[in-house]
Amino acid sequence: MFKRILKFTLIGVGFLLLCIALFYAFVHFSVNDRLAQTYTVDPKPIAIPNDSAALALGHHLSLVQGCQDCHGKDLSGDIMVDDPAIGLISATNLTTGEGGIGAGYSDKDWLKAMRHGLSQEQTSLLIMPSTEYSKMSDHDLGALIAYCKQAPPVDNQLPQNELRPLARILINFNQMKILTAELIDHDYEAPEYITPSVSVDYGGYLATACAGCHGTNFKGLPGKEPGSPMASDLTQTGNLANWSENQFKGALRTGKTPEGIIMNSKLMPWEAFRHFSDDEIKALYLFFQTLE
Ligand code: HEC
Ligand code: HEC
């Protein structure tokens, strides 16, 4: 009797382990397929200027858009995720130094990365927020690329990316949306030029930098990773309805809201947004005030 129970228990446990192994093998290979998928795109060539006004604009945009937050102060890259369950993901060294992509990167490669979220091999980049950058005007993106291209060379060889089981399971069930190319509208045609002004329209253009987390209707979205706070409702049904322009400016410059919440700049990148000029913040404020 006892032997029979033991036998059935062992068969049961064995069967369960087999199911788990098969399930994980399925997840592993289906995520591999998505990582290996190549996209065919032919980005429209744009002018990459070289004058000092363009480089100054490019520098400003790189700060506001947070390139330095992920790719390092000197754009030489940085390890972003290093976790035994999730894996290892680094933000690329963008310079022409050793370990950097700069030297072997054509203008077309820059456009593929910025507008389509693709590597030189046409596969999806991880984490890189090209969803937002793809909406930048030709004029602004040209200035940004010009600035990145002239960054002084820094040698920094980063380790190969590696996705471990928990990341693969979360990616498989769309709980971790980090394959950038899957999230982009590859047919989007960015405007050539948007005139800066203190206006609702210009605020709307700047607010594309907020849509990735707060949603394209700015009504707020759940956190990007399990357990991270919800990206708040920025429309007039949220707290912003009661904020003055100065309070809004304070939140973007210091990370502290009038309600006393201290925002973590890793989750809400105010350390980048504090570089918005006063006029840019005014335009953003005007825009959010129009959202019912
Ligand atoms: C939230 C973090 C984050 C921000 C902000 C960010 N990047 Fe990235 N970026 C990454 C990561 C991570 C990768 C590497 C992706 C990979 O290897 O799959 C990457 C890759 C790239 C690549 C492609 C490199 C290659 O391997 O082909 C370029 C170009 C790039 N970033 C430029 C920029 C610029 C310019 C900005 C600012 C406008 C910026 N990034 C902002 C995280 C970020
Ligand atoms: C990488 C994701 C991310 C991006 C991009 C982002 N936010 Fe946020 N934002 C958050 C999260 C998460 C919170 C909630 C933070 C908290 O509660 O600690 C937040 C909160 C806020 C708040 C506080 C709102 C309240 O009701 O307390 C404001 C204001 C805000 N964001 C404005 C912006 C603006 C403006 C932009 C674009 C220029 C932007 N955010 C882009 C993630 C983001």
Overall description:
The protein is mainly alpha-helical and 292 residues long. It folds into 2 domains: 132 residues; 90 residues, Orthogonal Bundle (Cytochrome Bc1 Complex, Chain D, domain 2), CATH 1.10.760. It is 45% helix and 4% strand. It has 13 helices and 3 strands; from the N terminus they run αααββαααβααααααα. Strands 1-2-3 form a 3-stranded antiparallel β-sheet. Strand 1 and strand 2 form a beta hairpin. Helix 2 crosses helix 6. It starts with a helix and ends with a helix. The model has no long low-confidence stretch (mean pLDDT 96). The structure holds heme C (2 copies). The site of one heme C has 23 residues, from helix 10.
Key structural traits:
292 residues, mainly alpha, Cytochrome Bc1 Complex, Chain D, domain 2, 3-stranded antiparallel sheet, 13 helices, 3 strands, 45% helix, 4% strand, globular, binds heme C
Distance linking N and C termini: 71 Å
Strand content: under 5%
Mean pLDDT: 96
**Helix-strand category:** mainly alpha
- Taken together, the total number of domains comes to 2
Question: Care to give the gist of this entry?
Answer:
By secondary structure, this protein is mainly alpha-helical. The protein has helices at 2-36, 52-64, 67-71, 107-116, 130-133, 138-149, 165-172, 180-183, 200-206, 208-214, 245-254, 270-273, 278-289; strands at 78-83, 87-91, 162-163. A hairpin with a 3-residue loop joins strand 1 (78-83) and strand 2 (87-91).
